[in-house]
Amino acid sequence: MKKLLLIGAGHAHLHIMKKFQEEQLDIEVTILSPSDYQYYSGMFSGYMEGVYSEKDMRVHLPSLADLAGITFIKGAALSIDAKGKVVLTEKGDVLSYDLLSMDIGSYTAGIDVPGARSHALRIKPNYRIEEVAEKMWGAEYPVVVGGGAAGIEIALSLTARRKKEGKKAVTLISHSTLLQSSSLKAQSKIEQIARSKKMNLILKEKVANVTTTSVITSGGKEIPYDQLLWLTGPKAPEMFRASKLPIDEAGYLLVEDTLQVKEYPAIFAAGDCATLRDYPDLPKAGVVAVRQSEVLWENIKAFLQEKDGVRFQPKKAYLSILSTGEKEGLLLYGKITLHHNLSWKLKNKIDRRFMEKYKTTNL
């Protein structure tokens, strides 16, 4: 019997696990993931604010795997021998495969700033969210670094929580305007929202150094903190470069529109960890991984049956809804920018519906 090895339990692999409940294939399936839980990042802002519990935003992987007839192994991959078709884990175990699929997300960029690695909190890998949240909730002077969607959402959600508790506002530091990769209208709107909620914004200044008590910017500002959260965008996993697999300039695994590595067609990848050769500018966002998930499933089946796979075609625009705290949301879709409580209600509905598909227990 052939072996399928799933590395990571991101959005696309959750879908694969669910499909194995519905459709049995003549294949032995194993999933390797560093935590018993897979956390859904779309709900992190609501969790930070106190809208969701930890159980709302996580999937118990051993239970889901058991229902799908999949072997769950708690651990992380260290390297891949694509020619020998084996994966070495951080514990020293060697896992063989006939078919390998990667869905391990990304890591945190910019952490090489002096002092950041030793003093800043990081959410990635995502199973750190509960520990990080506890520390940020208890902070007297919380500071968030990062002006992208993740940094803004978390900072606004913490600000909303702290407002209810009568605590000081959150400070957000960004080397650019907020939401730099979005439209000028969206950039202007999110800054207006942040300022209206009394958030302390330090924009267009890079972090030059981090001490045990202060963040020092390139402009010479010294911002005191007792908890510092680093949310500066995605960085590729080092494993692909170390394993001498085909990668793009940033180190992400390079795949074709079938989600396969051209040089090693038995290796698939989806989500943030991969770059599509024909669509290199596709955003590193969960919505993309969700749309790739059915393509991944169909192409795993096609590979086993020695048939041609289907091709992933990105949409021209993706719906994005940022939680801005107090059950309001900023909806972005193409040229549409809308800030309203109805935007948050739509986001809440989408997120809860996603989680309901994979929840198997109350763990």
Verbal overview:
This protein is of the alpha/beta class and 363 residues long. The chain has two domains: 2-34 and 75-106 and 236-304, FAD/NAD(P)-binding domain; 109-233 and 318-356, FAD/NAD(P)-binding domain, CATH 3.50.50.60. It has ten helices and 25 strands. The mean pLDDT is 96. GO terms for molecular function: NAD(P)H dehydrogenase (quinone) activity.
Q: Write the CATH architecture name of the largest domain.
A: 3-Layer(bba) Sandwich
Shape: globular
Radius of gyration: 21 Å
Output the CATH homologous superfamily of the largest domain: FAD/NAD(P)-binding domain
Strand content: 25-35%
User: The CATH topology of the largest domain is what?
Assistant: FAD/NAD(P)-binding domain
Determine and state the CATH class of the largest domain: Alpha Beta
Secondary structure category: alpha/beta
Question: Main β-sheet, in a few words?
Answer: 6 strands, mixed
Strand order of the largest sheet: 5-2-1-9-21-20
Number of strands: 25
Domain module count: 2
Low-confidence stretches: none
Q: Roughly how many Å apart are the termini?
A: 33 Å
